[in-house]
Amino acid sequence: MERKSPATAGKPNPGSRAAGDGHCAQGSGGAAAGAQLRSSGCGQLSVTTAASPAAEPEQLIRRALDFKNQGAQCYKEKKCREAIGKYHRALLELKGLLLAQEDSEEAASTASTAGATGLGKLSDEQRQLLDSIEIDCYNSLAESFLLEMKYEKVCFKDFLLPRKKTIHLLWLLMFLSNFLIVTARQMLPQGFIYASYEVTIPQLLTPKPRQQERQNVTCLLHFEGKNIIMHLTQKKNLVPKHLPIFTYSKDGDLQLDYPFFRDDCYYHGFVQDRPFSLVTLSICSGGLKGILQLENKIYEIEPVQGSPTFQHVIFRLEEKERALQMRCGLTQEEQKHQDTMFQNIENVASKTASKGDWWLRTRYVEIAFVIEHERYLMFARNETVTALQMLDIIHIANSFYEPLSVQLSVAGLEIWSQKNFITISPVIDSTLQDFNDWRRDFLVNHLKSDVGHLFAYKSFEFSLGSAYVGTVCDEWMGSAVISYKTTSLSIISSIFAHELGHNLGMQHDEQYCSCGKAYCIMAPVHEVTDKFSNCSYTDYFLTMNAPCLLSPPDPDRIFKIKSCGNKVVDKEEQCDCGSEAQCKLDPCCQSNCTFRSGVSCAFGECCDKCQYLKSGTICRKKTNYCDLPEYCNGTSEWCPEDVYMQDGALCNNYVYCYHGNCISEDTQCKMIFGFSAKTATDICFREMNAKGDRFGNCGHKHGIYHKCQTKNTLCGRIQCENVQILPSLEERSTIIQVPLGDKQCWSTDYHSGMKTADIGAVTDGSPCGKDKMCINRKCVRVSLLNYDCNFTKCHNRGVCNNHKHCHCDYGWGPPDCLKKGHGGSIDSGPPQPRKRLTIIAKAGIIGGIIYVLSSAFILVSVGIYFRYGFIRLFRRLRRRTESSTTEVSAQSITEMKYIKYVQKS
């Protein structure tokens, strides 16, 4: 840990490194510069022990004042590029941290290793003056980075320091690049400054828990020369189980997402031996981030991004003397205006009060956060960063409201990601009225809340926020507007807590109001504090029994965007075809989300061409022996619930149905390694699953793998053999081959960081012995499934489904397959009856038979007639043929005799 203080500046820091000489960072400002500084591979400078030549105090003061004026003038004229190096070098010379350029060679050769710095001659008053100048210079430099983002390059040649003196300046550069540039153009409100900072490394004092959550932790911090011990308790139920985040597409369509946010990273507590201290921290961003309040001092802490040593920076927030203080926008005139607006509104809070527990019960306030477009841009268009910042704000504000037994939670977050939906006027009262109208007309339709707060990146003259008083639970008036231009968590949290106090009925504190501190949260002039006054308690008592405050938030509540045209069928909509153009092409649905004339449905497995499919039409086929088919019922577009045979039904030799699957011994191996693979012998299971590592185990919890007991080894990780094909698995998956004797055991690994299903764990329902199966990595008897579908239940004419209802064979009807029917069950829908012959069909068949018989008779008759005719014709031809044959034979004999005669001749 290094401090920004002359008293500790001379201590060596062997772990510090300096960038190489003469390297410049190209780009647009400090972000690029900081990256170059961190990643430079330049050689480090040697440690020097030379001290700056002593200077007269008056000369130092004069140089400091001149430097301050010149630096301010430089930044005023926006000439940062050439002055930044000189700015720092002059500052460090003044503080005795760097040799003056004109004296460096002489001083380096003559100075003693134990020489004193030039600050040795300064009086306490002069030292304080230099400290104040340094603080102003740092603030001026920070402001320049915020206002001047367009210079082309920054050279680090003039930033180089001896290693033992470099830590606080290097941190300043890193801080400017990683914090100020991220929150570019954001300022502290007038009247507040970051008075000092320190770099420290928190230490966890409590033993690291292994299998239990960190409910209570103790941390040590070292700053301002002291060690402080923080006792922290984890705060739950801050983040809802389903946190809705509403954004808008480029086309202006409202979008809804439920990203995951941790609920176990928020802590609150106190500092040991500081009875009036308050600590509110989160560890959601990779380190400690939050506020520490020690008596009248306020500190903010946040992690150094990318620090390999878990470094954090602590800022001390101070009020600037003679600064113009910012105020709440709820002036006396505005209060009178609100009183006129609300005079006809009945106050129902007191009517719901009970006599017994009017104070003991916790009250719950659900806030809808609306982020204005410019504020979203300052978060670099990052929804996650935006949401985490809002959660940090409500976490800190929760610590303010805890003494009142009020628990704050986030109802949801809406981000105006494309544009603002109202005009953000410089007059905060006008902006509040416009936002309230928008909330009443639009926001409450999709995001219900007790109050709605708009966070705008806007300066409302001297106002930091405004709200309607006593309007919690009121959908018409429960609104507030907050100016969010600060980088300080403590400041924005106190502003939010102040305006929420107005919603809860709290007025501004008067002179006679007290909270034990100089200022209280509801003071009309903004001050960073953590206490409500006695007046605020009194005002809150009148509103604390408002109906919406008495019920805790529903942890399972899920919001849905209800609007015709979003292509999602909401309640009271028959269909939703989208835009006007899309609906013109839809044959079933109209643009007003109703069916066209004569249409029964627009979608669904049992809907075809805008009409229900006939009863009995199969809509989900049977996939395996243990599965059962489902049928449309003719009155709905939806296919019935997927049903299957009751668990424990025999489906193969010693294999039983489980959750609709019939898993044989080799099923899983074939699925992973191909058709030729099969389950390995028992020795592979015994050897591998007894190891208790990622390749062989019976499950894991909190990163610890459990060895399989001997009776459960077949239910650990699948072991295969006869593998001829290596599958293509998900990224970071591993295939392992282990030889055991003459066997090769093949398996896969799995670890908790993988986001895919574990295909290597033995599937529930796999056989592990006669009349046994694997369930939850244990080999159990099938009898534990309580299979009770005997022959008499369905009269041997069907099977039982997973609801223990009979699924009948065709020809028999549910519920008990006793009477004739078409099969199926009361859960799967009725199968389509087999077609019966109608009278017309029967007549057609009879007519067809008569026609065929008649035709056959005619053909036979004709055949007989022609048969005798052919016989007579054949006889005549035969006689002719015989006479012709006689003549031919005689002629042939004569020709043969002639041929023989010729041959002899």
TrEMBL record:
- Keyword vocabulary terms for this entry: Disulfide bond, EGF-like domain, Glycoprotein, Hemostasis impairing toxin, Hydrolase, Membrane, Metal-binding, Metalloprotease, Protease, Secreted, Toxin, Transmembrane, Transmembrane helix, Zinc, Zymogen
The listed locations are: Membrane; Secreted
Q: Which GO terms describe its biological process?
A: male gonad development; proteolysis
Which sequence ranges are marked TM in the entry? Answer: 169-188, 843-870
Q: Would I find Cell division among this entry's keywords?
A: no
Q: Which Gene3D superfamilies match?
A: Collagenase (Catalytic Domain), Disintegrin domain, Tetratricopeptide repeat domain
Question: Which part of the chain is the Disintegrin domain?
Answer: 561-647
Q: Which residues form the EGF-like domain?
A: 785-818
Q: How does it sit in the membrane?
A: Single-pass type I membrane protein
Look up the record and report any one GO term of the cellular component aspect. Answer: sperm head plasma membrane
The residues covered by the Peptidase M12B domain are 363-540
Q: Where is this region: Disordered?
A: 1-36
* Keyword GTP-binding annotated: no
Q: Which residues are noted in the entry as Zn(2+)-binding?
A: 498, 502, 508
Q: Where is the active site?
A: 499
Required cofactor names: Zn(2+)
Give the disulfide map.
515-520, 619-639, 808-817
Question: Which GO terms fall under molecular function for this chain's record?
Answer: metalloendopeptidase activity; toxin activity; zinc ion binding
Describe the protein's quaternary organization and the partners it interacts with: Monomer.
Its protein name is Disintegrin and metalloproteinase domain-containing protein 20-like
Q: Which organism is it from?
A: Notechis scutatus (mainland tiger snake)
